[in-house]
Design brief:
The structure holds two protein chains of two kinds. By secondary structure, chain A is an alpha/beta fold. Chain A has helices at 33-40, 55-60, 62-76, 90-107, 120-128, 145-156, 166-169, 186-198, 280-284, 292-300, 321-337, and strands spanning 2-8, 25-28, 46-53, 80-83, 110-115, 133-137, 228-233, 237-239, 255-258, 270-272, 306-313, 342-347. The chains are: A alpha/beta, B alpha/beta.
Chain lengths: 348, 71
């Protein structure tokens, strides 16, 4: 069995955040965690090549990078593609999910990846609903590398066999429903389930309802010349010194800070608290991460009524979706109380 | 939302996404002079305002009229 392994710039040993723009490349044989993968694959299975990409390079050039990786994988003619594990690295997780989908679709092979359950890559994987891609949950950090790689290797060994539903096999459900024959008719199973529910006994639904929440777009603001516009950032830009002790990841708080006196954010007065990207550029010029100067110009030219006196921030990195949903709702409520009509949010 | 990860934001259903330049500086380009960079940032800002003025029925991408090629 021939395996191609996809990893990112960090696990390929190229460097840290400063090398996140590494273009797509390839090495012969296993590299980084691929060595562990090779040792855990069944006899006869070989990691013939390792394809890698910088996290930023891939996400900033989704189509191009995706095609580049696919071309390399195609040339190697593997039986299985394995990507990651990406743990809680969102950019890496998205790349893994994208590549698994492309390889499985274009080449008809099984594609396997692993990442932390709250990685945005999971939503990408679920959205594609690809019968030949399988995403296994793993730990948040690389401390769970061995288990994650072992899980993917064990599943690779099942290539060619009939794969059962997610609840049995342990991969994250894709929402694909397969038609199967069972002994009891539906009405009987429904009554059994109802009796169990009434008697307080355990039961398992046959139709789990799980949808990616659809957000209804807000109506437009036709005349901005009277409007109060607020700035929001998840880049983690906040007053220098981080007075409210934000964490560099996994926050569950948000704050608003005054900018009524600012025509532009000045270097040294603000800093980005965020462990998920190279913050040197926005530390140098914070307007690059939240365009106060741009909106002041719009204000001066009467394109907007005013820039709100406060901006809102929470670092958007390794955040729980439910927490961020709550934070978004709280921010919106506060903005409404301040007479804000619309918000411009910047995400890194 | 202004972001360089606009393909993802659109995919996940963000109603109005504006193309940012690069992940570590979505409204910036450190290779430009301060004046050129500000002009570019202003254009990105105005595109965000245009998005606010535009009715959308689903995830929509707005692209500023700037020349920025990351690679």
């Amino acid at each position: 069995m021939k395996v191609v392994h996809f990893i990112n710039h960090f696990f390929a040993g190229i460097g840290g955040e400063e090398r996140a723009d590494t273009p797509v490349g390839v090495r012969e044989g296993p590299a980084g965690p691929g060595n562990l993968l090779q040792s855990l694959l069944p006899a006869g299975a070989t990691v013939v090549a390792t394809v890698f990409s910088g996290d930023n390079y891939f996400n900033e050039n989704l189509e191009t990078a995706g095609s580049q990786v696919l071309e390399i994988v195609r040339q190697k003619q593997p039986d299985v593609l394995i990507a990651g594990p990406a743990f809680d690295n969102g950019r890496y997780g998205v790349a893994c999910a994208e590549i698994c989908h492309r390889a499985a679709s274009a080449l008809g092979i099984t594609a396997i990846t692993a990442m932390y359950e709250e990685n945005p890559g999971v939503d990408v994987y679920r959205g594609y609903k690809n019968l030949n891609t399988f995403l296994f949950p793993c730990s948040e950090t690389a401390s769970g590398m061995k288990e994650a790689v072992a899980r993917m290797a064990a599943f690779a060994a099942r290539t060619g066999q009939v794969i059962g539903p997610a609840s049995e096999e342990g991969y994250v459900a894709r929402g694909i429903r397969k038609i199967v024959r069972v002994d009891k008719p539906g009405w009987e199973r429904a009554i059994d389930m109802l009796l169990a529910k009434i008697n307080g006994n355990p039961y398992v639904t046959e139709v789990p309802l799980r949808t990616l929440e659809v957000v209804t777009p807000a109506p437009p603001v036709a005349d901005l010349s009277q409007a109060n516009i607020a700035l929001v950032n998840t880049a983690g830009i906040m007053p220098f010194g981080n007075p409210d002790a934000f964490k560099r990841r996994r926050n569950n708080q948000w704050r608003k800070y005054p900018i009524a006196a600012e025509m532009a954010l000045k270097q040294g007065e603000w800093e980005a608290i965020h462990s998920g990207y190279n913050t040197m550029f926005v530390n140098e010029n914070p307007n690059r991460g939240m365009p106060v100067d741009g909106l002041r110009a719009a204000e001066k030219e009467r394109l907007i009524g005013r820039l709100n006196d406060y901006f809102y921030v929470t670092p958007g990195v390794q955040a729980s979706v439910n927490t961020m949903k709550q934070i978004g709702q709280e921010m919106a409520q506060q903005m409404k109380a301040e007479g804000v009509q619309a918000a411009v949010m910047v995400s890194t | 939302m202004i972001t360089a990860m606009y393909a993802l934001s659109k995919q996940l259903g963000v109603p109005r996404s504006v193309t940012g330049t690069q992940i570590p500086h979505p409204c910036g380009n450190p290779l430009l002079s301060p004046e050129q960079e500000f002009a570019m940032r202003k254009e990105i800002t105005l595109t965000a305002l245009e998005a606010i003025r535009t009715p959308v029925s689903g995830p929509t991408l707005f692209t500023p009229r700037i020349t920025y090629s990351s690679r």
